[in-house]
Amino acid sequence: MSKSLFRRLSKKFFIISNFIVAILFLAGCYSKWFDPKQWWFLGVLNIAAFYFLVVLVMFAIFWVFLSPRWILISAITILISWQSVRNIFVFKLPYTFAKQKAPDAIRVMSWNVAQFDVLNFPKTHDMFNQMMGFINENQPDIACFQEVVCSDSVGKSFLRLSTILDSLHFPYYYYAYDNNENWFGLNMHFGTMIFSKYPIIKKQQISHPPFSYNATFQYADIVKDKDTLRVFNIHLQSLRFSKKNVSYIQDESLQDKAKNLEETKSILSKLKTGIINRKTQADWIREEMQKSPYRIMVCGDFNDVPNSYAYETIGENLQNAFEEKGFGIGRTFSGIAPNLRIDNIFLDKGYDVLQFTRIARKLSDHFPIIADIRRSGQ
After folding, report:
1. CA distances from 184 to 155, 156, 158, 187 (A)
2. Is residue 207 part of a domain?
């Protein structure tokens, strides 16, 4: 084969590859337009969109040195999907988050607390005490926690709600959970919790069959001065990857083809189930949001990345605190992949986001996110 023929074939290969990556990226970015029950595999492409974007940029750099006109493939693709790109990577100058908030600001924290390390609580309170200290140190006015496990009833239990309340000193709270959950047979429940320094005038738990914890969410109407804010605290369907699944994803040395095929099928099955269930849950939440007579804030663990159906459905006509004041990728889940920004604070546009931070401190498998907000015009 002559060198000129090899070069022509190589160039065609790279052009076709660039087009394929561009199509996969666009399909992932706009998966929100398709019903996840029928087009669930587009949700998988959305999870991988960050990596497709990286490859598109690498192709653009490659073409600079080989044939600059083909940069247009990546450039036009990114331009078409610019809003989706901005959701994946926020292009803002980083700044230092001020611990001292403005006098008229409301500090909001959202955090998947991974049961407050309840499994180790009978042996040591060290992690629990660190988490309580961390929350108090950051002084949120409103805190939304997911994956809370404790007992709110009298009886034998090694972690009671009263212990958490005594540690955090919030005057108002709301604990919502699936009544069918009974951890350790000690009336300990798995749920979500809203804490507030401002009065809560209404509390509501919304549950749907099959009444699992991911089918249950809560809201509280919180009053500050003359303003009422309806705060939703949600936890959407997780992927429920086993340790074996995670090990397979992270271990590139696995050589057993049969085991590789088995693990791939298991992971794809869990991805499909999660994408479909989150679609249903997002629709439930959106339906309840539309009933609100007040401005809305939604905090929680979405278990889904930007541009997904759940992200776009719940976030419609709201602003995302990270996109307003964050920088970069904003990863909030500490494992598996670097692009998993799955925890969010969405907010009514009648509020200003003054500052935002994600604190990469490994107290849970999720990083807490904090935003200072203020009613517009104040």
Report:
1. 13, 10, 10, 8
2. yes
Q: Is residue 96 part of a domain?
A: no
> What is the helix (H) or strand (E) element at residue 281, kind and residue range?
helix 257-289
> Model confidence over 108-148: pLDDT tens digits?
999 999 999 998 888 889 999 999 999 999 999 999 999 99
pTM: 0.90
Reduced to 3 states, what is the DSSP secondary structure of residue 231?
Answer: strand
What residues make up the domain containing 18?
Answer: 3-88
- Evaluate whether residue 101 is within a structural domain: no
Structure tokens at 141: 């006015």
Q: Picking from 4-18, 109-123, 190-204, 215-229, which range would have the lowest pLDDT averaged per residue? A: 4-18
Look at residues 194, 214, 97 and name the one whose alpha carbon lies nearest to residue 141. 194
DSSP assignments along 236-264, one per residue: PPP----HHHHHHHH-TT---HHHHHHHH
Q: Are 181 and 152 in contact (CB under 8 A)?
A: no
Does 253 share its domain with 218?
yes
Q: Note whether 344 and 319 are within 8 A (CB).
A: no
| Alpha-carbon gap, residue 365 to 378, rounded angstroms | 37
**Judgement on whether residues 113 and 54 belong to the same structural domain of the protein:** no
Provide the 3-class DSSP secondary structure of residue 161: helix
Contact in structure between 296 and 316 (CB atoms under 8 Å)? no
Distance of alpha carbon 210 from alpha carbon 235, whole angstroms: 15
Q: What are phi and psi of 42, to 5 degrees?
A: -70, -30
Tokens of 139: 């002084």
Tell me which residue of 361, 357, 360, 367 sits closest to 97, measured CA to CA: 357
Supply the pLDDT for residue 264: 75
Query: Where would I find the beta strands (DSSP E) of 58-185?
Result: 106-112, 142-151, 172-177
Please give the Cα distance from 371 to 356 (Å, whole number): 4
3-state SS class at 367: coil
Is residue 94 a part of any domain in this protein? Answer: no
In the structure encoding, which two tokens stand for residue 177, read together? 């959970």
Nearest-angstrom CA–CA distance, 103 and 238: 37
Which pair of tokens denotes residue 118? 């309840």
Give the number of other CB atoms < 10 A from CB of residue 96: 7
Q: What's the number of domains the chain is made of?
A: 2
Q: Give the residue from 61, 88, 115 where a domain finishes.
A: 88
Chain centre to alpha carbon of residue 309 = 13
